[in-house]
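Hello K.,

You asked for the raw outputs rather than the summary table, so here they are, unedited. I folded two proteins back to back in the same session to keep the settings identical. This is the first:
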Amino acid sequence: MELAGLSTDQAPPISAPLRFFLTAPLFAILAGFLILLSESSTLFSRYSIESIAITHAITIGFLGFVMLGALMQMLPVLAGVKIYKVKIITLYSHIALVFGVVFMVYGLYFSSPFINLLAAIFLIFGFLILLIPMLIALRDVDNFSPTVKAINTSLIFATISILIGGYLLFGYSSGTITHIHLIVADIHSVWAIFGFVGILIIGVAFQVIPMFYVAPRFKPFCKRRVVHIISAGLLVWAFLNIFYPEYEYIAKTWISLFFFAFASAVWVKLNNRRRPTSDVTVWYWRTSCIFMSIGFFAWMFNSYLDDEYIVIISIIIGGGFILSIMIGMLYKIVPFLVWFHLNAKGYMNIPTMNEMTNKKILIVQFVLYLLSILGFIFSYFYPDILVYSALSFILSMVLLEYNIIKPVLVYVKIIKTKPDFDMSAFNMDV
C-alpha cells in the first residue's frame, strides 16, 4: 500500500467518518424492506412516491452517508486542510441527515406536507453544514492535486443538487407539482449522480487505485482533463434539456464516452497491479466497471426510446456502478481507518487490514448483492422475482453492516489496552 502524498497529521478523529459509515447500511436495509413491501408496478414507475422514497433512502441514506464519511477523512489527509470544528459539525450533520431521510420516507409514503417540510429543512441543513466548511477549507489548499480538484468540483455539483432537491421536496410539501418541477427533477438526478457522485468517484480513484492496489498511476491527461470535460458535458446537457431537449443526446454521448473511458482505464489498472492477489474489493471495482459501461451506453440511447427503460438504467448505474464502488471502498476504508488511528496512537501489534474482516462472509455478501442487483433488473420483465431480489439485498446489507462493525470492534478492544509505544515523547510545548 502506497501512502505517498498523504498529510496524515491532519486526519480527523475516527468517530467523524465512522458514524456515517456505520449508519449507511441501515438505510439500505430500510430500502430493501420498502422494496419487499411494494408492488412491482409502482416501483417501475419513475415518478411514483414509492420509487422516489426508496431511491432517496439509497442515494441519501447509503451513498450520501458513505461519501460524506469518506470526504471527512480524505480531505484533511489528501489536501492537508483542517475542517472547522469537525467533531461538532459531523455530529450535527449526522443527526440532521438521519432525521431528514426518515422524515422524507415517512412524509412521501403518507403524503404529509408538514413532515416533508421538516425533511427538506433537516436534509438541507445536514448537507450544507458539512459541504460549506469543506468548500471554504479547499480555498486555501496549496497542493491542489487532480484528486482535490475533482473533489472540489463534485462538492459544487453536490451543493447545487441539494438546493434543487430541497426545492423539489418543498414542492411535495406544498402540493405544487408542475411541468417545471419534472424538468428540475431531471437536472437534480443527473447532476447528483454524475456530477457529485460520478466525479467524486473518478477523483478518489486517482488516489485509491494506486494506493490500495499498488496499481499503475493514471495518465496525466486523464487526471487533468477528464473531470473538466465531464463537468462541461453536464452543463451542456442541462442547457439542452431545458431549451432543446431533442438535442440532449449530444451531451449524453459526450458524458457517457468519458465515463466509459474511465471504466476502461480502471479495468486496465487493476489488471496491471503489482500484487494481483484475489480480493473481494477488486471484484466490486470490476463489477462497477461493467455496470458503468452498460449503464452509460443505455442512458445514452434511452433518448430514442422515450425514457421507457429509465428505471432499469437507474438500477444499473445507481446499484451496479455506484453502489458497487461504495461497498468495495467501505471494505478498504474502515479497516484502514482502524489500522491508521491505532498506529498513530502508538499501537504496533495491530491486525492487518485483511485480518480485520472475514473473507468468506465478504464473498457471501458480494454474491447476495450481485444477485439482488441482477434480480432487480430482470424483475422489470419478470415481477415475481422482485421479492427474492429484495430479500437477497436485505441480507447482503445486513452482512455488510456486520463486516464493517467487525474492524470497529477490533479498534474498541485494542484502544482499551496500553500502547506499545509512548507517542507523547514526540509532543513538545512551543
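The second followed immediately with the same parameters:
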Amino acid sequence: MFDRTKPANSFNAGGAGAWEVRGRVDRIDLQDGDFAGGKQVGYTVGLNWYATNYLRFLGEYSFVDVSDSGGVGGQDGEVNAFSLRAQIDW
C-alpha cells in the first residue's frame, strides 16, 4: 500500500522531521545514421525535508550537458537549474 512519508519526530513536536537525499543520472543519444539529433547527459541531486506528516520542502539542482546538436539547428551547451518547492497534503 502506498502512503506518505511520516517523520518519526515531527518538526511541530520539537523534532527534526525526516530528511531524504536523492540523485539521478540520465542520458539520451539521438544520433542515428545521418540523423544528428544530439546527445544529452543530466545530473540531478536533491534534498527533501518532511517537516510534518503533511508538509514537505524540496530543493533540487540539475546540470545538463548538450552536445553534437548541430544537425537539428540547436546549440551545444550546458544548463544549470535550481528549484525549490513546498508541498502541503491534506
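The longest strand covers residues 35-50.

Happy to rerun anything if the numbers look odd on your end.

Regards,
P.
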